[in-house]
Amino acid sequence: MPRETNIVKIVGEDSYAKLRSTKCLLVGAGGIGSELLKDMILMDFGEIHIVDLDTIDLSNLNRQFLFRQRDIKQPKSTTAVKAVQLFNNSKLVPYQGNIMDANSFPIHWFGEFDLIFNALDNLAARRYVNKISQFLHVPLLESGTSGFDGYIQPIIPGKTECFDCTTKETPKTFPVCTIRSTPSQPIHCIVWAKNFLFNQLFASEPSPEDEVDTKDWGTTDEEEIKRIKQETNELHELQKIIVDQEESRIPDILDKLFIQDINKLLLIENLWKTREKPTPLTKTQLKTIDLADKKLDLNTVWSIEDQLSRFVSITVKLMKRIRTEKVIEFDKDDQDTLEFVATAANIRSNIFNIPLKSVFDIKQIAGNIIPAIATTNAIIAGLSSLVSLRVLNLLKYAPTESPLDLNMAFTAKASNLSQDRYISNPNLAAPNCKCAVCMKVTRGVLSINDMNITLGELIGKLREKYGFPEDISLLDSSEQRLLVDYDFEDLLDRSLKDVNLRNGSVILLTDEEGNEETGMVRKPLELYINVTDDNSIKLTLPPIDVEWIKQISEEDKKMEDEKAKQEEVNEEIIDGEIVILDEEEEEIPKGKKRKLDDEITSENHEMKKSKIDETDDGQIILD
Ligand SMILES: Nc1ncnc2c1ncn2[C@@H]1O[C@H](COP(=O)(O)OP(=O)(O)OP(=O)(O)O)[C@@H](O)[C@H]1O
Ligand SMILES: [Zn+2]
Prior knowledge:
36% of the residues lie in helices and 15% in strands. The model is unreliable at 568-623 (pLDDT under 50). The protein has helices at residues 5-20, 31-42, 76-83, 107-110, 123-136, 176-180, 186-203, 222-243, 250-267, 283-287, 304-325, 335-351, 359-366, 374-391, 412-415, 455-466, 554-566, 603-613, and strands at 23-27, 47-52, 91-96, 115-118, 140-146, 149-155, 173-175, 409-411, 423-424, 442-448, 472-476, 481-484, 506-511, 520-522, 525-531, 539-540, 548-550, 571-574, 578-581, 619-621. Among the domains are: 5-166 and 371-424, Rossmann fold, CATH 3.40.50.720; 176-366, Arc Repressor Mutant, subunit A (Orthogonal Bundle), CATH 1.10.10. It is globular, with a radius of gyration of 27 Å. The protein is built from 18 helices and 20 strands. The strands form five sheets. An eight-stranded mixed sheet has the order 3-2-1-4-5-6-8-9, sandwiched between helices. Strands 12-11-13-15-10-16 form a six-stranded mixed sheet, covered by helices on one side. A two-stranded antiparallel ribbon has the order 7-20. With 623 residues, the chain is α/β, with parallel strands linked by helices. The chain starts with a helix and ends with a strand. The structure holds adenosine-5'-triphosphate (ATP) and zinc ion. Residues 28-31, 33, 51-54, 59-60, 76, 98-100, 120-122, 125, 372 line the site of adenosine-5'-triphosphate (ATP). Adenosine-5'-triphosphate binds at residues 28-31, 33, 51-54, 59-60, 76, 98-100, 120-122, 125, 372.
């Protein structure tokens, strides 16, 4: 029996022929990606391009079944392609690279695909692919898992909700003063060790903190702010011990971090009025560190003596590595960096009377890990590949008359829709009228060969083509920079190259004038800059009709915001990635999760202002 017999039985001859001529992009060859690649091959997609930036790690082998021990350190994409050769009947093209690198993956390259599958593990890349799919109108199958939970969301640009239509939780942040002065939980000390200490010693160039904006530090105590800044500058001195390979001075690092700095903190009496005071290490403790290399169990909590001893030996190791590596990034799978962070965090915890943790526990917290489950990945990949048949409308018995007939799927806990069954699959919703990615702007791709034209010339062409008025503003939205505004015209004579616009930059043109009589403005226009080496193309602007939309006054906007606050927010997110819809399943009207209207607020302008004001945020981020 030929291998396609069953799939032909399911989809029919015509649809099978369409499958064979479909060209797909799979982004990510990790847990979901390995499963998806297998499914896509078994479905006989004609061509599958696989992108992954990473190499295989030991910890991937428990679920990324295409990889073996011998493949460790090999690129995921090429290894995955080799692993499936025996049962493959599709054209497979692997790439090792970052999907967000517009030079390796220019927009016209994305444009060659009929369908994109996301099998990623981070918000930034998911958002990026979502945006590209919106620019090009290529359907996207978004998916994610976290432990036993997972979801798939087909996204039909312009027709259904996009990835950014629902708010996603940004990484958890802590005020600087909690991390640097008054930790009270193990996580505070882990963040201090990983994001502050490790980075300052091994991963960064010295940079004075004088310029840092302190508004989000969680304190206005001048004395404390001064101390934190001074402490950072002193840490750069410690970095020299590392760079100069002065092994014998490692106790100085301990002395500075865990005796001197703590003593300085104790002098700020305000801090300890309502809190238990920390107890610095003693000089005797530092003098009696046992330097013998002891075998220690990663699953148990070590004594403070063992923490100190391992801190010294691991610092020596990292010191040697830095000679060749120059900078070392924290990686939970790099045992040296993990043990440095774990011991430093535990020593600090001990000082602040916070319970210590095992290295294994700290790995989970520092790596922000919820163990990945192979079966969840298999289920989610299976659903994603099945739904792709409906996205392409290849199932005759379940025709897709409208994109809103398509279903997303959530596991029970992730969706909260029904506790009685593992998977819920509500219909897709229409785009959220408030979504800045898919609803608030008109999108297109601007192809250009000559980046020496001036910003002024470009704006002239945009005005001419799309009828924008004199009063406009232009933002480089990929870098969040204002380029031109009614009171900022300094860059008009500079070339696009000079103002750092390049292949993959995205610019946003906003009508700041509108029509007073009608109260309407042109919908903002967002253009992706595709730099081509085709000399025949000087500058091609996409054929777009820019709509007029109602301009909302500040007062209306305030009222809208109030209303929105009152409406129950039915979305929540766990693990920064998975959306929980807190609705009764039966209550979701088919394809209509929220009201669709075409109003637009003047939020763009506010976004612009806040972007310009943005400075270092003074928050420590747990990524
Ligand atoms: N910007 C990106 N470009 C290309 N591939 C990416 C990008 N971001 C993430 N990936 C890939 O997406 C995949 C996600 O897979 P998965 O969630 O299983 O993570 P993992 O890194 O393999 O495992 P773990 O995080 O548990 O160690 C990874 O292989 C990762 O390299
Ligand atoms: Zn959207």
